[in-house]
Structures are given as C-alpha cells and as structure tokens.
Amino acid sequence: MGEEAVAAMLPFLSGRFANPSGAHRFARDARRAVDEARDDVAAVVGCRPGEVVFTGCGTESDNAAIAGAVARHGGRPACPAAEHHAVLHAVERLGGEVVAVDGAGRVRLDALAEALDEDTTIVSVMAVNNEVGTVTDLAPIAALVKDRAPGALLHTDAVQAASWLDLRTVWPSVDALSLSGHKFGGPKGVGVLAVRDGMALDPLIVGGGQERDRRSGTHNVAGIVALAEALAATDAERSVEVPRIAALRDRLVAGLVAGAPGTRETVAPADKVAGSAHVLIAGIESESLLYLLDDAGVCASAASACASGAMDPSHVLAAMGVGRTEAAGALRLTLGRTTTDGDVDLAIIAITSVVATLRERTAARAKTRSLA
Ligand code: PLP
After folding, report:
1. Ligand 1 centre and the CA of 226: distance in Å?
2. 162 near 181, Cβ under 8 Å?
3. What is the Cα–Cα distance from 197 to 365, expressed in whole angstroms?
4. Which of 55, 57, 84, 85 should be mutated for ligand 1, with most atoms under 8 A from CB?
5. Of 72, 284, 295, 335, which has the fewest beta carbons less than 10 angstroms from its beta carbon?
6. What does the longest C-alpha to C-alpha distance in the chain come to?
7. How far, in Å, CA of 216 to CA of 211, rounded?
8. Treating both helix axes as pointing N-terminal to C-terminal, what angle do 85-93 and 58-73 enclose, rounded to 10 degrees?
C-alpha cells in the first residue's frame, strides 16, 4: 500500500472506529469520512458522488453489476472471452453469451454485434486486460450496444485501469464501472461500483440498506478512506508515472528478448498499459521458471493470480488464439510505482540466466534419453 493510504486508514482502526450508520457524534464523524471518500472517488472517476457504491472487492462489484442487472430486468448478460473470471463466471452462471476476442484480447465487434439482441440486459467489457494488459476503447462498443441492444447496460471492469488510464475518459462510455482498492496502492477487500443515475440494479447483498439500499453491510470505513486516498494519489501521479514505467517496461522486455532468444512480447506496447510486461518464452514451462525465479528474488506469475497459484493454461491466451505449447511459456511481469531501474536490471539478469539453465537441463535430458 502507498504510505498516504496507510496513514489515512490508521485513525479509523483506532480512535475513530465508529459505525457510520449510528446516530451519535462518533458515527457522524465516520459518516463524514465515508462521504468525503465518496466525493474523492467521484472526482477521479468523473461521476457524481451519489453514483459511487462502496463494495467488498472488485469481484463483488463485477458480480453486483451483472447479476443485479439480470435480477432486475431479466434477459441475459454478455461478455468477451478474455474477461477476468469475476465477470466471465458471473455471465456463464446466468447462461449469458461469451463473445470471441482478437489476437490482442479485444472483443471482436462483428462477434459482439451477432451476440446482442433485445434480450441482452447487460454487456460487460473490461477496460484493461489483467493478464496481457490490452486496453479496450469502449466508445465504439457503447455505440454498438446502443444500436443492437438499446435497452442493455454497458459495464466495464476497470480494476486494472485506474493506475494507467484517466477514468474520466472511460466513464462517459459506460453505465457502470468496477474498481478494486489493491490495484492502485489501496487496501485489499474494498471496491467500488460506480452506477450511473437512473440505472436500476437489484442489490447483490441485502440487509441493513446501507449505500442507499444498493449494498448492505456495515461500511469498511478504514478501507474506504484508504481506497479514496490511494485513488487520488494515483490520479495525481499518473501523468509522470505512466511514461516512467513505460520506459522501464520497454527496457525490461527488450532485455528479455535479447537475452533469452525465442522470447516474444505477447501484445504490442502501443496496445497495452505501461505496467504490463507479458512475454512468451519458447521451450520453457512457466511452472519451473516461476519456481527458480522466486529463489532468485523475482516475483512473477504466469496467468492470473486469482486461481490459487494453479498452473492451468490461461483462458485469456487460449481466447487470443495462442497455442498450448506457446502458452506454457507465458511470463507475466507487472511494474508499478515502486519499480526502479535496479529492479529491471535484476529481473533481466535473473530471468535470462534461469531460462538458460532450464534450456541446458532440457538439452541434457534429451541427450541422456537419446543415449539410452
Ligand atoms: N477484475 C480484474 C480485471 C482483476 O484483475 C481482478 C483482480 O485481480 C478482479 C477483477 C478482482 O478484484 P478483487 O481481487 O478485488 O476481487
């Protein structure tokens, strides 16, 4: 977490630990803090404060949008095949349409046009892909939805977008937008669903009627305050951080391509966010690579971090048309505000030497087998 977010949340874990739904002065103090956080989040998203609903995480925000729209309006949802599982599984569970993507992971407009009809209630298209970093321009998708399914809502999972894109340029195209605190220097276990005024969703969680009946449950005041603080800091730093991190990412990828022959960048830099360095390394199994890299001080992943470390082939790469053999050598490195030049130097040296070691082992095994 960013230092400013930690500092912002600490008072609400001790002296200011009141429930904002109460009627006394301490409750009013907590309620004021939540209201200020709501104002700050709205300013960064470009929406009205009343359109901000605080949730328990990005997954909940995605589920609340999709299940909430179908519960209220009936019909069925639709999403591209490269969505995060928080969207994909929610759509599949409701018998929705899963739409083909192109080689960069963007939804194919022809396939989307075919999938939409008057029975479509909500379309969910991510702003930034969490595995390969591809950015999707939502304006043409909004136009297509309006044309083919005029009654449908457009939701975007912007969980991976907040650090890299000005959300004020995303919000005008959509009716609902999900964020998650831990993706921009805030705490885990707190999220946002921005829902445009007049867009009716049934609540996913019912109970005490908090968040104007849109999401019941006692507010996580410390988490909400810290999320807002982190989002404001990210927004303020974005114009300086994006070019700095993009330069680091380009140097990292160039170093890997030069030092580990047979490596290719999965998605071109112009199509993705600055912090994403996803590569495919020929003749390598990610599982052994990640194991040795961890020992060498490089923390990386192969696909999404959500599947309990499982090494299943990535559904995103499969949807993009990457074959199983090539996908087995996927390496997903993420850079952020704490990443330095020194980290990039270390990563290039560690990854290229681990790849060389693994290739030597494979060659030695093949030689032993041929001798036998
Ligand atoms: N959507 C995307 C694109 C993500 O990357 C993630 C988490 O990695 C989520 C949703 C889920 O967010 P959370 O972990 O807050 O539930």
Report:
1. 18
2. no
3. 63
4. 84
5. 295
6. 82
7. 7
8. 20
Torsion of CA 63, 66, 71, 76, to 10 degrees: -140
For residue 2, the number of C-alpha atoms closer than 13 Å in the C-beta half-sphere is 25
AA letter at 304: S
Helix (H) or strand (E) run with residue 345 in it: helix 341-371
pLDDT, tens only, 326-346 = 999 999 999 999 999 999 999
- Residue 275 Cα to ligand 1 midpoint, Å, equals 16
Write down the pTM of the prediction: 0.96
pLDDT tens profile 275-324: 999 999 999 988 899 999 999 999 999 875 555 455 678 999 999 999 99
> What's the CA gap between 169 and 130, in Å, rounded?
19
Tokens of 291: 């194991």
Residues belonging to the active site: 306
Residues in the chain, overall count? 372
